[in-house]
Amino acid sequence: MHCPFCNAADSKVIDSRLAAEGCQIRRRRECISCGERFTTFESYEVVMPRVIKSDGKNEPFDEAKLRRSLMHALQKRPVTQEQIEAVLSDIQLKIRRLGERDVKSRTIGEIVMQALFAMDHVAYVRFASVYQDFQDVEAFRRQIEQMQQRDQDVE
Hints:
Number of helices: 5
Helix content: 40-55%
Radius of gyration: 22 Å
Strand content: 15-25%
Shape: elongated
């Protein structure tokens, strides 16, 4: 790690601690040349698979797009920001666990729908109405009936 003060190539680690809920390591370093101290953060790099859209196009996974979709579905629902962050992390973990380099957008949509169904039924129906392109009230009714049936099957 180059020193940010003198640009020397050598530094020594004085202290290491976990940061960001265990997802990073915070290191205090001291430059061998000038003696100045500085802090670095080390974290793992997670590579998300590419997304294959329904039209066949291939694009990088976009966490911001997923977040917007969730926020839109959960708008004005009794869900905390912490719950949203947790479900977002869970969805990304499930996508990574597929172990694929490319994942169909349909698969991602199904994972999101499962997460929303468990979290908030209204948000689930909102997301489903856009994701499945509901064209009329009948489509809403069928989706709600399916949801109620799933609830009864669980009981």
